[in-house]
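Ops channel
N.P.: pipeline sanity check, posting one input/output pair.
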């Protein structure tokens, strides 16, 4: 018997990826609300304002969905789309089998899959349980280069019930790309992700 989905006359149901929320409603097409519409940031707006917008957008993306992989995937896409001068944005999660980090959802070039705690910028952020702000990766002893273009990096630990469950990692080809305002903004966003997802 031919399975239903293979039958020539079978039309799969259309599943629309539509979840309108005010902050990112598509204004360009009347009557059409897309789930996510990238909006250009006012160049005069400061980082605090940008991170405020990102917090609203992230909450919108997480609304009604607690799957950690899905939420981390959309979060990395949001950051890669909205933050300027990035060449990698994504996650490493703690792997219970090895006790080290393993790569999670990300945007950018393929990356190293596993990083031991204490190694590289990511493993150091886990070992020291603090955000690593690295203006020049070449000056960071033990930096692991996944993309030769990376010059600056910020790694924010994901903390749940006082356990480090992974890290958010952003790379930039621009020296000194990240500062304390990025740290504050990204730490807030990471907390929203952890709070809104079942890890
Ligand atoms: N540079 C990181 C490795 C991960 S990649 O940047 C995606 C590190 O030193 O831990």
């Amino acid at each position: 018997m031919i399975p239903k989905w293979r039958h020539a006359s079978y039309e799969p149901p259309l599943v629309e990826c539509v979840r309108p929320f005010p902050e990112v409603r598509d204004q360009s097409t009347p009557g059409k609300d897309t789930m996510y519409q990238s909006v250009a940031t006012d160049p005069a707006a400061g980082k605090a304002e940008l991170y405020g917008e990102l917090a609203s957008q992230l909450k919108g993306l997480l609304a009604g969905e607690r799957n950690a992989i899905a939420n981390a995937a959309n979060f990395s896409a949001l950051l890669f789309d909205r933050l300027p001068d990035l060449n990698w944005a994504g996650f490493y999660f703690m792997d219970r089998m090895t006790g080290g980090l393993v790569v999670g959802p990300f945007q950018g070039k393929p990356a190293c899959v596993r990083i031991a705690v204490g190694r590289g910028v990511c493993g150091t952020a886990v070992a020291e349980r603090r955000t690593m702000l690295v203006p020049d990766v070449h000056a960071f002893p033990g930096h692991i280069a996944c993309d030769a273009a990376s010059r600056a990096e910020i790694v924010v630990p994901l903390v749940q019930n006082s356990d480090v469950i992974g890290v958010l990692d952003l790379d930039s080809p621009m020296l000194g790309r990240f500062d304390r305002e990025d740290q504050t903004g990204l730490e807030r966003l990471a907390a929203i992700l952890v709070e809104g997802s079942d890890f």
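N.P.: looks fine end to end. Residues 88, 111-112, 115, 120-122, 143-144, 146, 150, 153, 169, 171 surround methionine sulfoxide (CB under 6 Å).
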